[in-house]
Hints:
The protein is α+β, with helices and mostly antiparallel strands.
Amino acid sequence: MIERAFVTSPQAPPVARGLRFHLAEDRVRELLMGENLYGDPSLALRELYQNAVDACRLATARREFVDPDRHSSLDSDDRDDSDDNSDGDIHDASAMAIEIEIEQGVDAAGRAFVDFVDTGAGMGPAEFEQAFCQAGVRASDLSERIEEAAAFAKADPPVELWQNSRFGIGVLSYFMIADALTVTTTRLNRDGSVGDALRAHIPGPTAEFDLNRDAPAPSHGTRVRLWLKPGMNVSALTTLRNLVLVCPFRLRVSDRDSLEHRWAPGVLNRGSALLPGVADAVRTGPELWWTSGWGAVLADGIWIDASRSGMVVNLAGPSAPPLTADRRRAVRLDEGVIDALAVGRAAAAIDQAWHIVGDPGWLSRTSAFSLKIADALVLRAIEHQPTRSHLHGHEYAIGVAGYTLGDEYSGPAGHTDSVLQWRFSRLRSGGMFEAVGIAPTETAPVPALPSDAVFLGAAGGSQQIGTTDAASPWFGSAASVYEAERLLGHPVARIVERARELGLRVPRDADSLPESDPIVRASLSFNGRADADGEPLPVTGLAILLCARQLDVSTEQVVAALDARGIDFADRARTLHSSPLSPGVLRAMSENGEGIAPWRNAVWMIGLEHIVAASRASGLTVATLLAELRALGFAKLPDLELDGKDVTDGDLVLLSCDQDSRSPFYDRSQPMPGERMAEAAERLGLSEETLASRLASFGVSVVTTPRRPPSVGLTKKKVLKLLGMSTKQRAAVTAHDLARISRDGDGEAPWLDPRKTVPAWVVAGSALRDGSVGVVVSELRELGYTVEDPRTAPLTAVPGTQGGSPSRATDTPAAPGGPPAGAGGQ
């Protein structure tokens, strides 16, 4: 490593004085008006549009400040507050006064131009010189504007003003598409009077120009004409029709072919090609529309490439997100603001948009972005129990049954028996199965919420929380409580309360658990909660290290935060502060073996070749590295006798199943087949006896008899045999019979196991497909199955078992005393 000493001799005179950084003006100007910054030259049109909106907002604020009563009257008389279920061309807006007009055309000399005309506040000489002509200066930063903003805030009531301008460099972007500008402007003064009309022609970004008085204008506002560069192929109509989803003012854009598009204030533009799925959008507030397809999050009505399932949310004013320099994307989105807006409109959505938000498929898609929003809607439906929806082609009372992820599937989808029985009981109580002969129960189970999927280990990753990991099983531990808190954002007490409502175990001290904090959430986010077998994992030492690094805290602080909440973590974590990890351990934990990110997940197998490479690079023994990794919480490590072993290249060849020195490897649980021994002996040039001895020293045995291939589940042939059918009977099995004995009713695997009772939820699902529960029960029993009749099945009120981890749906045993294989159930 090259080292430099940053020491200055006090006796040495400076070589140069008064140095400072300077900007190369021409280069910077070229950057700000070039495609390297903005990427798409047509985005200059968006800059002009947003400046026009800012000008109109300032004019509105000044009129309100001067005459609040008149402004309020005009606002109520002129604004369009009607429902906006019309299409993108707002034809009935033609009678309204246009506040922003954009026209693209060609003048008499054949020169192409785009005009931006607004009825905004305009500019005076000071604003023109100090803001319009100064890159990096915003008009809102001028002393007069600051004084004016203070006066607005002191008014009674205060006058609201929010503007888009963030960077003060937009004017230079105009020259991406134009080689000259002509600007005419008339200022609306602070006292409501109209100033002098001004005009400037700007022949280029570096040219000098004069600001002159112009002929008096009929009203305040600004016209900016862009004289387009020769060959510049931009369309103001197409660009703004796609980008402007909601305009706060009356807007019209037209082109040289007399085509036009109109916007009414606050009305959703349904003509954008970027958002084609909003034809059926229903508005329930000035900033929110519910839609059956894809929507988006907008910034002050502008598309920012933030797609969102099921809704269009317009974040404006103080809620508008910070944007990148080109204003094409949000730097970050405040999900809490979006959740609050949508949750606050849940009651209106139930009343006005239930045909959209009441669809289980819609709830499922929305849950991937926000379980809080989905929960709020289902809770409102539960409060209004007559609310109904459709699932599997049948109507049911979602207000009685509730909804959670997985209800839309007919199969188990990884759920436990108790969850599937609860699902059937809920849907039955909601009347889903009435048409097939299964009457609703008088007592209803606990209705479901979308967020219950987190408690039940059924939720996939949420884009909102930035993870694609599936939710872990609920173990009833403190870690389970805090993991649910991290994913759902509810207080710990609410997490515990809902777990109890669902019949799930909670820690003994659940009522005294402290709230979570950023350290706990971060440490859990780096850690899998269960291994490949579904067993709980402690927070690994690696997760604690990564948490400490991310939050700039010590590992002792992380350990203390987890300890205070009863969250299990790897023993080695307690000594990380005093005994840091060695380079060899870091190499073993890293995916590329270099001791740097990306890091291995604790639930992944770390192959022997990876650990041997780390051992050779660090000088630590393989056994030492394995011991360290186990202490750090890594669950999947080679199961070999490695104490005192120097693993050679030949050992890696011998132990690898494919004799390529790479995973997978033989170990104590996977012996080497005898037929592979001869291949290994020939490859390594050693006798089979020598190799067998070496394998034995690692704890690996050699089997001389062929091993049975791993089970691939029940085959159709095996199922029919278990049903006691002869070869002749099996040949006579019909397609209808095969559909009946397949779990999904499609005549294909997976098959119903004759050794186990067919549960009520399977029978009910089959009845939904075929029309009669009595027929399904009868046919299954005739085929030889033991059947739980869903008409008389007991109610499962909650999905929890209040005990250990429940068995999966495939483990349902046949009823005691049931008929032997091949006998008909009674």
